[in-house]
Amino acid sequence: MQELHNMNKVPMTVAGEARLREELDHLKSEARPKVIAAIAEAREHGDLKENAEYHAAREQQGFIEGRIQEIEGKLSSAQVIDVTKLPKTGKVIFGVTVELLNLDTDEEVTYRIVGEDEADIKQRLISVTSPIARALIGKEEGDVVVVKTPGGDVEYEISSVEHL
């Protein structure tokens, strides 16, 4: 049964978990009490049917409670992986920062492989489920990988694999 449970775990970096816990703490300690106070205040203004503040506050409360449940669910299914504590083998695994050389353009690009929720291409954080990450996982420094992109196949050489 334990093995089955682990299959539902979603990989997450230490930073990703910290961000979620920070947001959860903010929602519970600041946003939730504020919206409860706003609902109480709006109630004092009488007729709730035509009270826009009351309905807006109730809608906001629904959003906050939904987000709290969503974050708690994500944290409960998270498998936090601290790549800095894993042995450096030169292999591409979840959490590593990979420096790639585009063999067509000679451009270097650096990506960190993170959980789906943490992905942000502007920050060079790519999801472990993205086509490029899937092509890289298990490969090693010096390997050449072919990544299928909408614009065609792109060949990258793995310059370095860092456990940052």
TrEMBL record:
It comes from the Bacteria. Residues 89-162 form the Transcription elongation factor GreA/GreB C-terminal domain. Keywords: DNA-binding, Elongation factor, Protein biosynthesis, Transcription, Transcription regulation. Pfam families: GreA_GreB (PF01272), GreA_GreB_N (PF03449). GO terms for biological process: DNA-templated transcription elongation; regulation of DNA-templated transcription elongation. The keyword Endoplasmic reticulum does not apply. InterPro entries: GreA/GreB_C_sf, TF_GreA/GreB_CS, Tscrpt_elong_fac_GreA, Tscrpt_elong_fac_GreA/B, Tscrpt_elong_fac_GreA/B_C, Tscrpt_elong_fac_GreA/B_fam, Tscrpt_elong_fac_GreA/B_N, Tscrpt_elong_fac_GreA/B_N_sf. Residues 10-80 form the Transcription elongation factor GreA/GreB N-terminal domain. One of its GO terms (molecular function) is DNA binding. The keyword Transcription regulation applies. Belongs to the GreA/GreB family. Necessary for efficient RNA polymerase transcription elongation past template-encoded arresting sites. The arresting sites in DNA have the property of trapping a certain fraction of elongating RNA polymerases that pass through, resulting in locked ternary complexes. Cleavage of the nascent transcript by cleavage factors such as GreA or GreB allows the resumption of elongation from the new 3'terminus. GreA releases sequences of 2 to 3 nucleotides. NCBIfam families: greA (TIGR01462), PRK00226.1-2 (NF001261), PRK00226.1-4 (NF001263), PRK00226.1-5 (NF001264). This is Transcription elongation factor GreA.
